[in-house]
Specification:
With about 525 residues, the chain is an alpha/beta fold. About 40% of the residues lie in helices and about 15% in strands. It has helices spanning about 10-15, 20-30, 70-75, 100, 120-125, 130-135, 140-150, 160-170, 190-200, 200-215, 230-245, 275-280, 310-320, 325-330, 360-370, 400-405, 425-440, 445-460, 465-485, 485-490, 495-500; strands spanning about 5, 35-40, 55, 60-65, 90, 175-180, 220-225, 250, 255-265, 305-310, 330, 335, 340-345, 350-355, 380-385, 390, 415-420. β8 (about 250) and β9 (about 255-265) form a beta hairpin. The chain is globular and about 75 Å long. The N and C termini lie far apart (about 50 Å). Bound molecules: flavin mononucleotide and iron/sulfur cluster (SF4).
Length: about 525
């Protein structure tokens, strides 16, 4: 029997040398006359261990990581094929690694287990069971299940997915669309990419179910142009799903139809905002539209459109397969189910951590993340992308819950968590937030377009008149919050004001300059 070895093929693993490791394993097996079956699986999201090589043994899979191409000879010598524990990179059974064992993987349960493009593998791992059930249900009932699951949009705004779908379902039109927002522009985020590169059929399944639910026959995945591998994987998966009768006319022998295409984004952060995204998808410049009308009523090409994030749509197959209660059972308050958090920045163990709402940042940062990568004390954490607040340690015990975060003028957003050690200069970060807004603003409204540029200037002049300019900065933030058309200008004050209020010592004229602290 061939020895089956798995080497991840996602962008992160590849960036860390997975292709060279795979080639070295093939060479070594050939030289040793070992019958090898090399599987390029998706990543399990334990990025600090990538490339994470796994071997199938009679006692289950055994993992080694991080593996470099030059380690491969030694690995074989140390008994890789039998899962021996003699090599320094030995990690034991992947599911026993605490980082993975302590997660609650509902959406990511299959991610990293097999070849992302193998339909057989997807089906063996319970894929398309949700769709099979949805094909027997009325759209009305699918929408009810999604509503009962408590699923809220994972793109940032946390709007209830069932309510959005109900609006599209109830808006009569001969043509409706499902648009997947795969622009994934938030700093430190990669969960959408991981879904698309490691479990693409899950997203396809979620989109077909959304189409069945609301009566849409055409879907688009609006994919950020910086994800070329995700583009290749998604296109190949769509082709294979089509050939197998899951897409196109007469899905799996029924009278339903659903077509799906990938469209590349325009490379602007604002094109992740749903109405700018729709403009871009229509071939125009990505400018924000005034709401109402909501995209659910008048969206792509003026038709009722579901716009959902990758993670929202990827959660749907589980809900349809296992029932809304199985999803709603996890979580706290009005935040039901799980959120795939993405640990990034200055963190020892970066990667994907899917957890039920209610855990704390401290658990994520230390139990999962292992503290800072630099070895210095952690000082600030930005949660929810570039428009998210900077949180000091006193706020790290707040439960990860949409309402609890909103109560402290913060947000969970898409689950991106970027950690900073004590060398961070929060005044520079506040300036960066304004600068980012000035660069990425679509320019439609004055508080955002002009306000962000004035914001950079005021921060630069803080030392000249600390009290006066601080008041000016607070007033400017208030104007941006109250007067901006969308959350780009409306939420840029979150990182700015949190830095100013939570880390006031970084805003004094005699502050310690950034980078002046001694290394530990
Ligand atoms: C400036 C800005 C950027 C955004 N970027 C993204 C993005 O990259 N991906 C995303 O899914 N949602 C993004 N959103 C949120 C979308 O506008 C929208 O709420 C989301 O796609 C709806 O899907 P959901 O309900 O599944 O979250 C962004 C919003 C704003 C204001
Ligand atoms: S807030 Fe900024 S990004 Fe949003 S519409 Fe106004 S100018 Fe455009």
């Amino acid at each position: 029997m061939a020895t089956r070895i798995f080497v991840p093929s996602d962008t992160t693993a590849r960036a860390l040398g997975a292709d060279a490791v795979a080639a070295a394993i093939e060479r070594e097996a050939l030289a040793r006359k070992i019958d090898l079956e090399l599987v390029r699986n998706g990543s399990r999201g334990l990025f600090w261990l990538e490339p994470l090589v796994e071997v199938e043994t009679s006692a289950g899979r055994v993992a080694y990581g991080p593996v470099r191409a030059e380690d491969v000879g030694g690995l074989f010598e140390a008994g890789l094929c039998s899962g021996a524990a003699r090599h320094a990179s030995f990690q034991g059974r992947p599911e026993d690694i605490p980082f993975l064992r302590n997660q609650q993987r509902l959406t990511f349960s299959r991610v990293g287990l097999g070849d992302p493009l193998s339909l057989d593998n997807y089906i063996e791992l319970d894929g398309f069971r949700g769709l099979s059930r949805a094909l027997t249900m009325a759209g009305e009932d699918i929408v009810r299940w999604v509503t009962e699951s408590g699923l809220r949009g994972r793109g940032g705004a946390a709007f209830p997915t069932g309510i959005k779908w109900r609006t599209v379902l109830d808006t009569p039109s001969p043509l409706k669309y499902v648009v997947c927002n795969a622009d994934e522009g938030d700093s430190g985020t990669f969960a959408d990419r991981l879904v698309m590169e490691s479990d693409p059929y899950m997203l396809i399944e979620g989109m077909i179910i959304a189409g069945l639910a609301v009566g849409a026959t055409q879907g688009y995945i609006y994919l950020r142009s910086e994800y070329p591998l995700a583009q290749r994987v998604m296109n190949e998966a769509i082709e294979r799903a089509h050939a197998a009768g899951y897409l196109g006319e007469g899905i799996r022998g029924t009278s339903y139809r659903f077509d799906l295409e990938v469209r590349l984004g325009a490379g602007a952060y604002i094109c992740g905002e749903e109405t700018a995204l729709l403009e871009s998808l229509e071939g125009k410049r990505g400018m924000v539209r005034v709401k109402p009308p909501l995209p659910a009523v008048k969206g792509l090409f003026g038709q009722p459109t579901v716009v959902n994030n990758v993670l929202s749509l990827a959660a749907v197959p589980f809900i349809l397969d296992r029932g809304p209660g199985a999803y709603a059972d996890s979580g706290m308050g009005r935040s039901r189910g799980t959120l795939p958090f993405q640990l990034a920045g200055n963190i020892a163990r970066g990667g994907l951590v899917e957890l039920a709402f209610g855990a704390t940042l401290r658990e994520l940062l230390y139990d999962f993340g292992g503290g800072s990568r630099s070895g210095r004390p952690l000082r600030a954490v930005q949660v929810g992308g570039p428009l998210g607040a900077y949180l000091p340690e006193s706020q790290w015990d707040t439960p990860l819950d949409y309402e609890a975060f909103a109560a402290m003028s913060a947000m969970l957003g898409h689950g991106g968590i970027v950690a900073f050690d004590d060398t961070v200069d929060l005044r520079q970060q506040a300036r960066f937030a304004m600068e980012f807004c000035a660069v990425e603003s679509c320019g439609k409204c004055t508080p955002c377009r002009i306000g962000s540029t004035r914001g950079v200037e005021v921060i630069d002049q803080l030392d000249a008149d600390p009290e006066g300019n601080r008041v000016l900065l607070e007033e400017l933030c208030e104007t941006m919050t109250d007067g901006s058309l969308c959350a780009m200008g409306g939420m840029t004050p979150y990182p700015v004001l949190s830095a100013l209020r939570q880390f006031p010592e970084d805003f004094t004229a005699d502050r310690e300059p950034c980078g002046s602290r001694e290394p530990v």
